[in-house]
Amino acid sequence: MMRSLAVFLTKLITGANAQWEGCDKEKRCLRIYFANHGSHLDFATLWAALPKVMREKTRPVAARDYWGKNKLTRAIAVDLFNSLLICRDGITRKDNPIEQMAAAMRDGCSLIIFPEGTRSLDGEMAAFKAGLYHLARKVPQAELVPVYLENLNRILPKGHLLPVPLLSRVVFGQPIQLGNGETKADFLQRCRQALKSLGCPG
Amino acid sequence: MIDYSSPVTHRVLGAIFGVLVIASIIGFILARRAKSESAKATISNLNARTKSWWVMVVVILGALATGHLGTTIVFALVSFLALREFLTATPTRRSDYYALFAAFFIILPYQYWLVHTQWYGMFAIMIPVYAFVLLPILSVVGGDTADYLARTARTQWGLMVCVYFISHIPMLLALELNIDRPNMGSAGLVLFLVAVIQGSDVLQYVWGKLCGKRPVARVLSPKKTLEGLLGGVLTASLLGMAMFRLTPFNPVQAFTVSLLLCCTGFFGGLVMSAIKRERGIKDWGNLIEGHGGMMDRIDSLCFSAPIYFHILRYFFPSSI
User: Fold this and answer.
1) Tell me, what's the ipTM?
2) Looking at beta carbons, which residues of chain B come within 8 Å of A154?
3) Residue A109 and residue A74: Cα distance in Å, rounded?
């Protein structure tokens, strides 16, 4: 009930128009959706743009140091959007984000991750952190789907509380898989390029 | 607002619904007869348009039936949706957040509040003067000079085209002209404008399909032809002449005003096309089936609405 309301409100505010380009909307499989990050609305919008059956099996990955700060943010992230909270720094063997993500995927959940690690201020895409590569190695059967989120950094920029009602676009691109013997740098560069080309085709 | 007892009202409503019913029946028959794939595509596009027309007619007549308040609210929504499309398509930067926020949540509602309270003096200058002063200030505070003039100009343009111009349509109801012959009431003024402009769009499309050969704006709007333009504008002006009883005009005045409105409407459409081409988009949005976005529907209305309003206000005694 609360979740349907959250989906409805997200779609209303962001006017999101989902486009599936080279990615099968109906296919049920384990996926890692990776997207550019510029707004708090990003994970909600991507999550709301998925078909309902897939949404129920997809968890956004969010920073524990941010979303776990207090009861309210935790309730929004975990209870409402079913997020997986991970720590961004101070990684130990016990508290290893890659292991936690892989565990969630072993339970049959797809994930939404933002490999830039933080929200961009000006809409420019930062370099990708290595987590995407390590996760792809741990869960080789998963499809990596680049998802370009357009305009969300204008609708709710970092540092602001209220959204401006512009229209956004969610573009799902062709899935990627880690190549045999592909190096970390090459793979991350390829993923970033795939995401970038969804934003400005041609 | 609508004088239901007047014979003019009966005839106008009869004509509008008559045309829609006939168009729907023709579309239905054509759809059953169409054989080739391309014919089927054209007919299904035509039928989608007719269906959207039903919705639009019901919305506009419904708004007019609820009087000034209802009409004001409906056009405020139209402005909101159009502004949303316009500002989505034209890039701004992080420092424009407060300007965009003010455009949607302060300036737009206040402009329609002025329509509601019928304070004409403020209505006429709020966006051209006060928004023009406020928005650049809100944008300059961020200290970002990249593309500064273009960014502020875009927001101002969006407000002028989508809010200021469109708000003149519900403001027509505040004119309260004295027409001393049977008429439809003040709703007729709105209906005349919308029917002439949208009629001109449809008739240009029809004439273009029937005998269009010479492109008239090769770069801006490759589908528009000279034959379509002339045929459409002239028949829409005749349509305006036939509807002179909705207005204080005599038939010749109605024809002349319609001709002027169709021409400004045509160029308004070209201006909006130029903006779309600059941004590399085909449609402003996908709000209405077969019609693109809200802006695609009202582009020719934007420029003609204030001109029509001022013709009425200056040449005929009105209450504001």
Assistant:
1) 0.87
2) 92, 97, 100
3) 20
Instruction: For A47-91, write each residue's pLDDT tens digit.
Output: 999 999 999 999 999 988 888 889 999 998 888 889 999 887 767
DSSP letter at A51? -
Reported as a single tens digit per residue, the pLDDT across B212-242 is 889 998 888 888 899 999 999 999 999 999 9
Whether A157 and B100 lie within 8 Å, measured CB to CB: no
B231 close to B246: Cβ distance less than 8 angstroms: no
Residues of A in contact with B88 (CB under 8 A): 15, 151, 166-167
Q: Quick one: tokens of B252?
A: 């010749």
Residues B154 and B134: beta-carbon distance below 8 Å? no
pLDDT bucket at A201, cuts 50 / 70 / 90: low
The tally of CA atoms less than 13 A away on the side-chain side of residue A64 is 12
Q: CB-based contact (8 Å) between A83 and chain B?
A: no
| Residue pairs spanning A and B at CB distance below 8 A | 31
Q: Please tell me what DSSP assigns to residue A150.
A: E
Q: For residue A73, give both structure tokens.
A: 């943010």
